[in-house]
Write a structure and sequence with these properties.
Helix content: 40-55%
Strand order of the largest sheet: 2-1-3-7-8-11
Strand content: 5-15%
Structural class: alpha/beta
Number of strands: 11
Number of helices: 10
Amino acid sequence: MREAITRFIVFAALLVVLDRLIYAGAVFLRDHSGHPVEIDLIYDEGGWNPPVVFFGDSRTRRNFDMHEVEILTGLAAYDFGRDGASVEQNLFMLEEYLRHNHHPSVVVFEADPPMLDARYGRFLKEDFRDHVAVVPDPSELLRQSRPTLQERASAFAVTWLVKSASLPNRLPDLWHRWRTQRAAETSEVYFHQCGLPEKPLLCRYYNGADNFVIGNGETMTGHPLPFNMDPERIALFEHIASLAEQDGFQLMLLETPRLQGDQAYPAEQKQRADAFYCGLAQAHRSVMYARMTHINGIDREPALYWDWEHFNGIGATKMSQLISPLIAALASRQRLAACSFQ
């Protein structure tokens, strides 16, 4: 009897030690991932499934008002734009979103000319550490093969470690994350302080879109943005177009305005970029290219801009009003012109 009790005590002690080690590892990974709640929504296995989703960098995150899009289209919409995100990251996010039982009707994908340059943007792999054991290198994004058994086992192990380790000790954290995700799903507008500590700003957040409420910044004059059209980026956009046909959604490749944006690009390079995006749309029935850089003179109204590349809240609302009819038409499967130059 005494021997059995001793063994039980040793077993319990080892279990506590193991639990503490796992808990420490889980907290470390949690605290060093720093991913936004938008990333969690990608992996919720279709529990939240808005018909309209946006992917891009800060010019997608700042340049649209999701509340206005929802009002004018009658469809739930979410903005997955991430500051500084590359085409590789946006493609990875889109593929992960589709793979986890999401079925959007319309995907709006940023298609600025510099997006065709392999040097433009960055892949923020740390955003995905809670969900993916190994984030692929950009060169691997065009693979069509399924994950291997080893990759699946590794992903499962990391997911278990981060989300399930020492459950009783992590309940407060899990409760906070659940509430944060529920807040995103309930689609409530809220205002918050943003900007630098020495220059606080007021921003409006709704469904991923984060808009500077009013005013202008300090950088209202543009500068040249020469760019290359690199084969690897061209292949990524061709792959994105093929996903639209494969998964049955309508894809809008969209360029939004810059203030006095005609000065940003060498004319010949800009024409080549337009020709590529338009040609891609013409080759795929599920794809539309919308260059909305001059519509209603929106590129010549400084009052709509925070800086020369991003709208303020007024501009984001106006841009959303201009794009919503196209989104509604695509969602209802109307056949629009493959290319729209406005």
